[in-house]
């Protein structure tokens, strides 16, 4: 079984040491202590790979839009179920691997409420192992592709991240892994083009929706998403619809009752007129006799 990942205590904000570069290049060698103290919160978004700084690459706009859509979907799910917490972009965690240590900042991380290491309100790094890591793939270079699809996949697998998603606007780089009973990543099933999470019961999405990115208005009508996208609003809308239909039915009943009264009154008036005409005719007949 792999050793659990852990993070150092959140480092205090300090000025860079005089002998350390302020903006070191990719591959610069620094100690782990110096990384936490000076580069963990650096604007370059450095990760740390066993003594070497790595700059997180930038994804293209389409891939970022897919990331934002999935993030919004996860927020809807968590607003409904409230069983986990999210981090994004700059929160790192420490991975103690066989023969090396890395510090990674997944583009999106999720910690379930039943995780042995809770995500605390004031954390600036996560001290445990994420339950889900998501990376928005950058394909600027082959090395960047390998970092997410191979290197981080091996690292997240080794420290026990249960699910790992790789996002990209090209379907061939949309990769979803789940850790099996042996601790190895396997591709998640794609039944009818739908990915279903095991760590978030009920959370699911269509792969084709990465292209369409349907709005909330569309998803609340979609059986794939309706169970966790704005269910409170759906219940309120259903109640409002029921009230409106009940009011309409009441109005129709009142209108029908009014129409019936008016019809009865018209019939009564007609009968009275006919009776009066008959009496008048009888009177003329008597007078004529």
From TrEMBL:
It comes from the Bacteria. Residues 14-24 have a biased composition (Pro residues). CDD domains: DUF820-like. Residues 1-24 are annotated as: Disordered. Residues 237-288 form a coiled coil. Keywords: Coiled coil. Pfam families: Uma2. Residues 41-207 form the Putative restriction endonuclease domain. This is Putative restriction endonuclease domain-containing protein. It comes from Thiorhodovibrio winogradskyi.
């Amino acid at each position: 079984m792999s050793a659990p990942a852990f993070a150092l205590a959140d480092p205090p904000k300090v000025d860079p040491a005089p002998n350390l570069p302020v903006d070191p290049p990719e591959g610069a060698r620094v100690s782990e202590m110096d990384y936490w103290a000076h580069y963990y919160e650096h604007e370059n978004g450095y990760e740390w790979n066993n003594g070497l700084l790595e700059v997180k690459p930038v994804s293209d706009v389409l891939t970022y839009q897919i990331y934002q859509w999935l993030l919004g979907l996860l927020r809807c799910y968590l607003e409904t179920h409230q069983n986990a917490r999210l981090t994004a972009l700059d929160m790192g965690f420490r991975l103690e691997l066989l023969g090396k240590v890395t510090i990674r900042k997944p583009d999106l991380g999720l910690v379930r409420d039943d995780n042995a290491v809770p995500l605390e309100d004031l954390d600036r790094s996560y001290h445990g192992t994420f339950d889900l890591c998501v990376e928005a793939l950058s394909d600027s270079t082959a090395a960047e592709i390998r970092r997410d699809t191979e290197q981080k996949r091996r690292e997240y697998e080794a420290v026990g991240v249960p699910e790992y998603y790789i996002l990209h606007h090209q379907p061939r780089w949309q990769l979803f892994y789940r850790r099996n009973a042996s601790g190895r990543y396997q591709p998640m099933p794609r039944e009818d083009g739908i990915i279903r999470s095991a760590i978030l019961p009920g959370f699911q999405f269509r792969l084709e929706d990465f292209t369409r990115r349907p709005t909330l208005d569309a998803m609340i009508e979609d059986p794939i998403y309706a169970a966790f996208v704005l269910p409170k609003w759906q219940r309120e809308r259903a109640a409002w619809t029921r009230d409106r239909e009940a009011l309409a039915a009441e109005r129709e009943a009142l209108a029908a009752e009014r129409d019936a009264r008016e019809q009865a009154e018209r019939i009564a008036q007609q009968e009275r007129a006919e009776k009066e005409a008959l009496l008048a005719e009888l009177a003329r007949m008597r007078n004529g006799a």
